[in-house]
Amino acid sequence: MLYLIMDDAFSAGVYLEILQFPADLVLHPNSSFQMICSVTGTSEPYMYWHRWTATNGLKQMFGSVGSKSVDPSSVEGYNAIRPNGSHMIVESARVASAAPAVWYCSWSPQ
């Protein structure tokens, strides 16, 4: 199962927003999935995907300092891309049957 958390941020009187789509996602074993993180109110922020599991706790899975740049681009059967400055996508062709997790994205200014 995958659950997503939505978060809003405020900084220096400017409204900044980070959204994840879909907001909730429950999958069957061996299903594929794609989640999109979108940031508005800032230009080319650093972006991150994190995953929480009961066995490993919270772990940063992917990081990006700008468009077309993700490090690492693939880990543990998951792939990430950053097609532009405000979106970062994580996906997997096949989710393991024993992999319940909470995924969320975050950002930071450059």
Automatic annotation (TrEMBL):
Organism of origin is Paramormyrops kingsleyae
Q: What is this protein called?
A: Ig-like domain-containing protein
Phylogenetic placement of the source organism: Eukaryota, Metazoa, Chordata, Craniata, Vertebrata
**What InterPro entries does the annotation carry?**
Ig-like_dom_sf (IPR036179), Ig-like_fold (IPR013783)
